Each structure stands twice: as C-alpha cells, then as structure tokens.
Amino acid sequence: MHSQQSRRFVISLLVLLAALLPQKEVCSAKPAYSAEPVALAQFVISDALDPARPRSVRDPQGDSNPQGLGGSENELFMPTVLRNARPLSAPLLDDIGNPDGDGSFTVSWQAAPGATSHELQEDDSEAFSSPRAVYSGPSTSASISVLDVGTYYYRVRAVNAFGSSDWSLVRSTLVSNVTVAPSPGNYVGSRPSVSFDLAEDLRVCNLSITVPFGIDNCRIRPSGCGELTGTSFIFIQIAIGAIYEISGTFDSPIHASGGYQARMCGDTLIFPPSEDSWEASKQAD
C-alpha cells in the first residue's frame, strides 16, 4: 500500500513539474521523401492538481493552435510518426534501342519505388545546357519524335508529393533518318502572303500566293489540288495570262517552305521573272 502511494506521489510530482516547464516543441520535420503517416494514439494524462480535468494529447499539425505545456489548453506536443520513410532513388534509364537511326523511337526506364510520376528531359548536349521536357507522368516509357538528324541525350527522375530524386544516368541515341508526317489543316504565311489547305488525303488545295510583280503585285491561285511526293509538292502553269512555278516542302509536321517564280500575270510579261522564297505554318484548329 505504501509502495503504491509512493508511485502516485512521484508521478504526480513529475506531471506538476512538466506543467511548469515552458512550451517546447519536441520535433519538427519536413520530409523530402515519401512517407506514410501513422495515426497518433488517443490517450489522456490526469492532472495531478485537478484529476477531473484531463490533459489531451494531439497532433500539433492539426486544425487547432495548441498552447503547449503550461498553456491554457494543457496540451503536450507529439512528433508525427512516419512509417516506411525512405528517399526516392533515381530511376534506371534503359538503353535506347534505335538501330536504324530513325527519328521516332521509345525511351523507357525502370520505376523508382515510392514515385508517383517521372520527368523525362531531352537535349542535344550531354551537359544538358538547354534541356527540354518531353514527358511527365506515371508511365515508364515515352514515344519520342525528333525533326532533325543528330545525337539526342535523355535523363529521367522520379517525383512524388514531397520532392524528386536525382537525375538518372544519361542515355543517348543517334538519329540519321528523319521522316516528316505533315499534319492536315490550314497553313498561312507572310512576306509574301501565302495560304493553302492540306487535306486529309495529303493533297495541297486552295493555294494562294501574292508576289511582287514589276511595279505591282500578282496574286496566283492555281486551280485544283497538288499531290504530295514524299513531303514535297509543285504547281506549274504555262499558259497565256499565267506562267509560274510554285514549289514547297514540309520540313516539319506543321511547317512548310519553298520558292516561286512568276513570268506572266494577266497580260503582263516580265523579264527577269519575279522569284523568291516563302514559308507557312499550320494554324490552330
């Protein structure tokens, strides 16, 4: 009996001393890695001076603004408990299989544990002096299409709500064969003014170009549509009132450029002919 009273006295004395101490936060952490929070246990400590009023224990990151030990609310600060906490590791970027040097290929990698998404960057420099983001999402691969020949470098990193990993090792591929697939739509350019439509069957229709012609301008509008040969097209007319040649090539899926030569417009014939280059870009749908 005497032993139990001694224990109660010691416990009451410790609680009383704790209540007199200034507020002090036990732990503050800002995790830079994935972690799964564990619910805090719900329990109370009896106040030695007033056993009828319990001391609550709750998460200091909650909605309330606790006053801490000795405060008006008589609360204890508890650190947030984390489980399975570990930093994100860099993903493993696979070798890029592109033996034909084609401009379209796939870049793939191994998922990093704890990642919710991945970011893939591309650059034409191994030092990544001017990187370009080419993919961001949960997948572990990305389909890549480039427009120019050359060596392309890639790196990937893992991402979650708390941060990102280091970049992976760099992988590269040599592109020696680029195939452009023109995108159907309306194309417009200026200097000189030019416009045309690329139909779904990849025919160039409704071409119109206004070119300098002597002391005036001449608007050339070929009738019908021109077929694409690969990525190029040409319109030629030799007739009374119209002698011209207009050619063009798609150098990207949404851009074309070419040249023109006009000798006769209406009843005016000039030498040397009017000739220059033109370019046009696809307009937003």
Short key terms for the protein model shown above:
49% strand; 285 residues; Lipocalin; Immunoglobulin-like; five-stranded antiparallel sheet; nine-stranded antiparallel sheet
Secondary-structure map with pairings?
Blueprint: H1 2-20, E1 34-37, E2 44-46, E3 54-58, E4 75-77, E5 82-86, E6 92-93, E7 104-110, E8 117-123, E9 132-137, E10 141-145, E11 150-160, E12 163-164, E13 171-175, E14 185-189, E15 193-198, E16 203-213, E17 216-220, E18 226-227, E19 232-239, E20 242-252, E21 255-265, E22 268-282
Parallel strand pairs: 3-4
Antiparallel strand pairs: 1-5, 2-3, 6-7, 7-10, 8-9, 8-11, 11-12, 11-13, 14-15, 14-22, 15-16, 16-17, 16-18, 19-20, 20-21, 21-22
Radius of gyration: 36 Å
Q: Tell me the number of helical segments per DSSP (H or I, 4 or more residues long).
A: 1
Give the averaged pLDDT, no decimals.
80
Q: Report the sheet with the most strands, covering strand number, pairing sense and barrel closure.
A: 9 strands, antiparallel
Could you name the CATH class of the largest domain? Mainly Beta
Can you tell me the CATH architecture of the largest domain? Beta Barrel
Shape: elongated
The name of the CATH topology of the largest domain is Lipocalin
Strand content: over 45%
Question: Low-confidence parts, pLDDT < 50 over ≥5 residues?
Answer: 24-48, 55-74
Number of strands: 22
Spell out the helices and strands N to C.
HEEEEEEEEEEEEEEEEEEEEEE
Query: End-to-end distance, in Å?
Result: 89 Å
Specify the helix fraction band. under 10%
- The total number of structural domains is 3
Q: Structural class, from secondary structure content?
A: mainly beta
